[in-house]
User: Which sequence fits this backbone?
């Protein structure tokens, strides 16, 4: 049925429920899993001694910090996959919005199912914050399992 499942996580308790659902499905199907976390663009800078704004996001410290944060999310997920005997590969996408990173990864990796969580925001909150899950659902060419 599904051979390669992408599971998108952000480290939140809700996304870990999605992880567990995706890993359970993969275990039952004998599917491989790509566990993805996306670091959204950082829209700031730092001021140097002369008062110039320096693009922190281009420096090695920025990348190292983002990779360290991603590994803190991915490693426990990989440990869960190993405990469930599911073959999993970690993926970190840097400086992309979640929906874009998920969709681009799915296309590149040939995933035939995506599993992700949704906070279920409605009304003004959804308009102001946007819905990365809705964006993935709208643009995906493969099935998306949404966990709430």
Assistant:
């Amino acid at each position: 049925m599904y051979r390669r499942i992408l599971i998108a996580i952000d480290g939140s308790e809700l996304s870990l429920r999605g992880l567990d659902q995706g890993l359970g499905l993969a275990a039952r199907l004998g599917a491989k899993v790509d566990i993805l976390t996306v670091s959204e663009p950082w829209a700031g800078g730092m001021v140097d001694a002369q008062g110039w704004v320096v693009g922190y996001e281009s420096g090695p410290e920025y990348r190292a910090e983002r990779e360290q944060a991603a590994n803190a999310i991915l490693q426990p997920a990989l440990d869960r996959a190993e405990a469930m005997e599911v073959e999993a590969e970690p993926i970190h996408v840097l400086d992309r919005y979640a929906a874009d990173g998920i969709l681009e990864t799915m296309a590149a990796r040939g995933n035939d199912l995506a599993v992700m969580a949704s906070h279920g925001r409605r009304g003004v909150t959804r308009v102001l914050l946007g819905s990365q899950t809705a964006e993935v659902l709208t643009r995906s060419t493969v099935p998306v399992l949404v966990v709430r």
Observations:
- Residues 125-129 have pLDDT under 50 and may be disordered.
- The two ends are 23 Å apart (CA to CA).
- Helices lie at 13-29, 60-83, 98-109, 123-129, 132-139.
- The longest helix spans residues 60-83.
